[in-house]
Amino acid sequence: DPVSLPRLGRGSMGGMLALPPGQGPHQVGCTDVMVGHTRQGLFLRLFYPCLPRAGATEPLWIPRSEYCGGLADVTLGRRWCSALLSIAIGSCKVPVSWNGPFKPHSSGYPLIIFSHGLGAFRTLYSSICTELASWGFVVAALEHRDHSAATTYFCTAEAGTEEWIPFQRVPQGQKEFYFRNKQVHQRAQECVRALRLFQGIAGGRSVPNILRQDWDLSVLKDSLDLTKVAVMGHSFGGVTAVLALVKEPSFRCAVALDAWMFPLENVLYPEVPKPVLFINTEKFQTPESVAKMKRLSSRNSQTRIVTMLGTVHEDQTDFAFLPGKLFSRIFGRRGTLDPHKTLAITTRAALAFLQRHLKLEEEFGQWDELLDGVGDSVVPDAPLCRSHL
């Protein structure tokens, strides 16, 4: 069967993709933000605590058909599968309120800048971004323009003109390390620019969103606490988060989900000044990669490395919530741990870590045992994690 996707007969897919709503006390809203008319600008999806609104619409998980083409190319190596992918997942929605009214917060929400993995884009971590926003964070999920996104675009100053930036494989004859190292530096710089954007908004600067959403960025002005900023990412985004700590002192800590440590140059390891929480899946990491993480934990006693048993690399993305057959056709074997449990463990560990290092008042610390475990840490009701400490 040359087609890498299951037959798309009526009903064969069940609900196709059911992303979980946030479990925290806040409802979650979401909007897209594009700033600037060149590739040096920024593109991100913002998740934030919002006010309830009757008849709220939910955004598409795959924002436009071009992203299906990019995904088909990256994951299946066959752009012609894009139409099938579009049928399978093109109508899936994210359970958040699109352009929902922002919920002001006088003492300010902490901010997380989120960096996607290789071949992904800004919406593919909606489940974890939604969950964090539901607990009172503003989360800015970047779409990187270093040719590592499945595809992305910017709007030139000419009215209505878009320029697309395709995914790029390592050029023939070029060493992968040099290619990826250049990308990771660009990505970390984009994380810093995203922080600058929010610092500008908080300082009262007017920032036009060229996507002309019905949502004014100035509502954030008095509701962000920019002394409490973290950077987070998955895979290539995980190592991007680590590098962002080196580039920007305002980032207080990083959460690296299954970080792909390969692109980081050795000379930078002693330079990482702040704590990192590495949450690894069981099947992705190599001994060399974990050794690199351990070098960081020897520099900072607050850095933690935990491994979730029964998980694969894609379990920390929204793809974990695809039905089994479709998931395994695209990615191969899936993890044995239920994706809702994976998400719960990931976010609880991240929340406990963020509470500690951003000095938050909320009580996220009930999972501190996970961060403080020595050897095999058994988490209450979920003996699923192993700590490398």
TrEMBL record:
Alphabetical UniProt keywords: Hydrolase, Lipid degradation, Lipid metabolism
Coiled coil regions, renumbered to chain: none
GO BP annotations, alphabetical order: lipid catabolic process
Top class in the EC scheme: hydrolase
Active site positions, chain numbering: 235, 258, 313
Pfam family, one: PAF-AH_p_II
InterPro entries from the UniProt entry: AB_hydrolase_fold, PAF_acetylhydro_eukaryote
Transmembrane spans: none
Keyword presence, Manganese: no
Single GO term (MF): 1-alkyl-2-acetylglycerophosphocholine esterase activity
EC number(s) given by UniProt: 3.1.1.47
Family annotation (PANTHER family): PLATELET-ACTIVATING FACTOR ACETYLHYDROLASE, PLATELET-ACTIVATING FACTOR ACETYLHYDROLASE 2, CYTOPLASMIC
Protein name listed in UniProt: 1-alkyl-2-acetylglycerophosphocholine esterase
Source species of the chain: Gymnorhina tibicen
This protein's encoding gene: Pafah2
